[in-house]
Design brief:
With 629 residues, the protein is an alpha+beta fold. The protein folds into 3 domains: 273 residues, Nuclear Transport Factor 2, Chain: A; 107 residues, Nuclear Transport Factor 2, Chain: A (Roll); 169 residues, Nuclear Transport Factor 2, Chain: A (Roll), CATH 3.10.450. Helix content is 16%, strand content 37%. It contains 9 helices and 30 strands. Strands 1, 2, 3, 4, 5, 6 and 7 form a 7-stranded mixed sheet that branches. A hairpin with a 2-residue loop joins strand 6 and strand 7. The longest helix is centred in the middle third of the chain and has 17 residues. It is globular.
């Protein structure tokens, strides 16, 4: 009887036809409802896209229906919606773009071009519509900052109409299959060694930031090898250590479209690699970096036919605020130990030297680690062994060392070598029981926007090592107060100067003397040092007026005997206006035309309450980059 029942059940499976999933699915983590919305069809969602782009072009976010708690990001930084970032700088939006929509998830996307303070940018937008209102808007803005990435002429960009064409039923695939195909593409790009996991159409083409990179054109990967599959079989994208935080928020079964977001991590632990044809090739960048992307796939008959993407560099291992990570598992507390002897300045300097040697040799195991460690590189948390651990080859024998036994912190500031390229480097270590618990690093590389001094002339200013007479020293609180007054002056730079300066005060930024000669600090008017010489003179002229705010200010270490205070902060340049008037009445132009943030470590030498020297390392960051600590 049981055997007969099983035979009947088997026949039923065969004759019942293909199984069709129910339109409603159980609620899963990350879904706001167990029922997918059905009140906004394809025309409705693409209408939201059209209205959004018109509102953006007019800088008029108030015309949009917005949820009360809308979440908005620009280049993976969360910020207020409709008032900052590109919303404050846009001067035009292209009338057409690649448009996609998913009626099941209520998501829509747009990829195209825009204009920012007169300069072209590429733009990707993903939006989520809930109950007729924008609930999420995620944007990637690609600015041409000089880093090597595709950046086509926005006047000649065309978007393949295939993304909007409905496929015949026989050429469609299920949501699950479409997602799997897109995921197989990323699996192919990751650690690209010639293995191809993705199915490609014979005519597959890929448009990246307006450049057809699968065609044999100057400045394109197609100049090495044309075609989607052929490029991957050659293995020219070997530098992709991983494709992470992959998300597939938009899948359109009728049109065979998948829109994905994620990050490509270029670890650059090697600067040459061999492709499958046996040729040695060089990487374009010598240091760890990541790209953030919004990428659209058109999949026909199960094969990738078209790819259109926009991507921009972001700090290595940066994360998306929209990606959910599993909570960290905190181990049980270790048994109590006998307190170790305190680590004085000599001890702290020794730990810093030991750490730098371990870093340069790529031997993290030789560092005395605490039971729990935090590590950041340029404001992004990551694991020890990642990032600069893989690219560094040496460090300078000279460095500015500032140890603070009262807080157990030590600063090391000097030079490192990323493969064969020098970079300005600063380090903060927190030492607990003679073990390293916190590691915070700042690294300014030559090709990142901003000042970059001649590294061959690097030497430690002797003043930073001179012990002050007791009468010229300040207390910890007084030193911190001087730094605060300096920040306040820069933030509102209207000509009023709050701190006192020695007449010979100079400021170096990434090894470049920005208060004298032809140089100038980041973003503000070009060659600022030709307009005003010296720390105080530049502030009196109001040259730093483009700084909107100096935030997340921290005092890291203090050395009262040498009059040193080390600080960190973020300077935001919104650049809603690219011209500003200095106190002499002259209207001046900013160097940059797009929003950005400078993450800064600054070492102040203060004598008798007056600032004598400022040694800074500043790192170009996405606008409003958050503090990781």
């Amino acid at each position: 009887m049981l055997a007969k029942s099983l035979r009947v059940f088997a026949v039923a499976l065969v004759t019942a036809g293909p199984w069709v999933p129910a339109p409603l699915q159980a609620q899963s983590p990350g879904n706001y409802s167990a029922v997918y919305p059905s009140d906004c069809d394809y025309a409705c969602l693409t209408g939201h896209v059209e209205n959004y782009m018109k509102a953006l072009a007019g800088r008029d976010a108030k015309r949009l229906p917005v949820a009360r708690n809308i979440r908005f990001t620009e280049n993976n930084v969360e910020m207020p919606f409709g008032t900052e970032g590109l919303w404050a700088t846009v001067t035009g939006v292209a009338p057409t773009g690649m448009v996609a929509a998913d009626t099941q998830t209520g998501e829509a996307a747009w990829i195209g071009t825009a204009e920012e303070n007169g300069a072209p940018v590429y733009l990707g937008v993903r939006m989520a519509v809930r109950e007729g209102r924008l609930a999420e808007v995620e944007t990637v803005v690609v600015r041409n900052t000089g880093l090597p990435l595709p950046f086509g002429d926005v006047k000649t960009v065309t978007h393949d109409p295939a993304f909007a064409q409905v496929l015949p039923p026989g050429e469609r695939r299920s949501r699950e299959r479409l997602r799997a195909v897109a995921d197989s593409y990323f699996n192919t790009v990751e650690l690209n060694d010639g293995m191809v996991f993705a199915p490609f159409a014979d005519d597959c083409a890929r448009l990246e930031n307006g450049i057809l990179t699968t065609a044999a054109a100057p400045g394109s990967a197609g100049a090495i090898m044309a075609g989607c599959e052929a490029q991957f079989r050659l293995g020219i994208y070997r530098i992709n250590k991983r494709i992470r935080e992959r998300r597939y928020p938009l899948i359109d079964v009728e049109r065979g479209v998948v829109v994905a977001t994620g990050f490509f991590d270029h670890a650059n632990e090697f600067d040459t690699y061999k492709t499958t044809d046996g040729i040695d090739r060089k990487t374009a960048l010598k240091w760890p970096n990541s790209i953030s992307l919004i990428e659209a796939f058109r999949i026909r008959d199960g094969r990738i036919q078209r790819i259109e993407t926009v991507f921009s560099y972001v700090p290595y291992f940066m994360h998306s605020p929209f990606y959910d990570h599993a909570p960290a598992v905190v181990p049980a507390a270790a048994p109590a130990k006998v307190a170790a002897a305190a680590c004085d300045s000599t001890c702290l300097n020794g730990v810093a030297a030991q750490f730098m040697d371990a870093l340069a040799s790529g031997k993290p195991a030789s560092v005395p680690w605490a039971a729990r460690v935090r590590f950041t590189e340029n404001g992004v948390a990551q694991q020890i062994g990642e990032g600069v651990w893989g690219s560094i080859r040496a460090h300078s024998p000279q460095a500015v060392l500032v140890a603070d036994a009262a807080t157990g912190t030590v600063i090391w500031q000097g030079l490192i070598s990323d493969h064969d390229l020098p970079a300005w480097f600063a380090l903060r270590l927190q030492v607990v029981d003679r073990r390293v618990a916190d590691v915070e690093t700042w690294i300014a590389r030559a090709r990142n926007p901003g000042p970059f001094g001649d590294t061959s002339r690097f030497e430690v200013d002797a003043l930073f090592n001179q012990v002050l007479p007791v009468a010229q020293r300040s207390t910890r609180s007084q030193l911190a107060a001087v730094a605060t007054r300096y920040w306040d002056t820069v933030q509102r730079n209207d000509g009023r100067v709050l701190p006192q300066f020695e007449s010979a005060c100079v400021r170096r930024e990434n090894g470049q003397l920005v208060t004298q000669g032809e140089a100038g600090s980041a973003t503000i008017v070009k060659a600022a040092a030709t307009l005003a010489q010296g720390c105080e003179a530049q502030l009196k002229l109001g040259l730093y007026k483009p700084v909107d705010r100096v935030r997340d200010r921290r005092v890291l270490t203090v050395d009262e005997a040498r009059g040193l205070v080390v600080t960190s902060s973020f300077a935001d340049f919104g650049l809603a206006q690219t011209q500003y008037r200095t106190t002499d009445g002259v209207l001046r132009d900013t160097q940059d035309k797009h929003p950005s943030t400078r993450e800064q470590l600054e070492i102040f030498r203060i004598v008798g309450g007056r600032i004598q020297r400022i040694e800074a390392i500043s790192v170009y960051q996405p606008y409003r980059m958050p503090l990781a600590w």
